[in-house]
Amino acid sequence: MRDRFRRLSAIAAVVAFAAASAVSLGAGADSPSRSVRYFDHPAFGQTESFATLARKWTTTSLTYGFMNRTPDLPADQVDAAVAAAFGAWSNAADLTFTQVPDCGTPVGDPSCQTPQIRLLFAVGAHGDNDPFDGPSGVLAHAAGPGSGFGGDTHFDEAETWTAQDLLVVAMHELGHALGLDHTQASNCPGPDGGFALMCPVYVGQTGLGPDDIAGIQSLYGVKAPSTSAVTVAVTGKGIVTSTPAGISCPAQCSTSVAAGQVVVLRAEKVARRWNFNGWGGACAAAGNSDTCTITADAAQSVTATFKKRRR
Ligand SMILES: [Ca+2]
Ligand SMILES: [Zn+2]
Ligand SMILES: [Zn+2]
Question: Hey, which residues are catalytic here?
Answer without folding.
Answer: 173
